[in-house]
Amino acid sequence: MDKITRIIAYAKTKLQEDLTGHGFDHAQRVATLAHQIAKKEKAQVDEITLLASAYLHDTIDDKVVPDVAEALAQLQMFLAEIEISAKQQAEIIFIITHMSFSKELEEKVTLSTAGKIVQDADRLEALGAMGILRTAYFGGSHQHPLYDPAIKPVVFTDKTEYRKGSTVINHFYEKLFLLPKKMNTKTAYEEALRRQKFMETFLTEFYQEWEPEKANFF
User: Fold this and answer.
1) pTM above the 0.90 mark?
2) Which residues form the HD/PDEase domain (predicted)?
3) In whole angstroms, what is the distance from residue 99 CA to residue 152 CA?
């Protein structure tokens, strides 16, 4: 069994029961998007580092695992077991521990080319039709209100406050619509704008359906 196959199997084991929108299907799409972005950008990146970071990025995420330190230790042992080089291990771990939106609220770092591409791929997954569904899925799993006109979107500068969340719809403004400008590559930026446009159309419809008495549907 080659290294990528074993990495995929590890990710599936760790993420297949996730019910927050960060499951193995998400990891698969991030890996596919990362591969497509790298190809379109003609980026010179190590394939194992790129795909491992994509598949494994949520296996140590505090939204998914109860003990981040333990999950990270397990991952490091696994990477050593399948003979991922020390250099590759260091880059993979750095990428997946620094690529998230919430991490940027604490510390802004410069990622490697592979890291920037995986970050873009992960952020594209937060946009478009998939982004809408994953946002609703995550919000429901954490008992966030769907929408409350009295609760206004805020600008988060602290990870702890960000993690508390507000409403599902507010999340569009508090994070998702901020992502296009944060894309590292032209390829991801253009796709992010396309997906954002779809989300804006969705919100127009949502607000109309939220107050049907004002929309005058019939």
Assistant:
1) yes
2) 19-136
3) 27
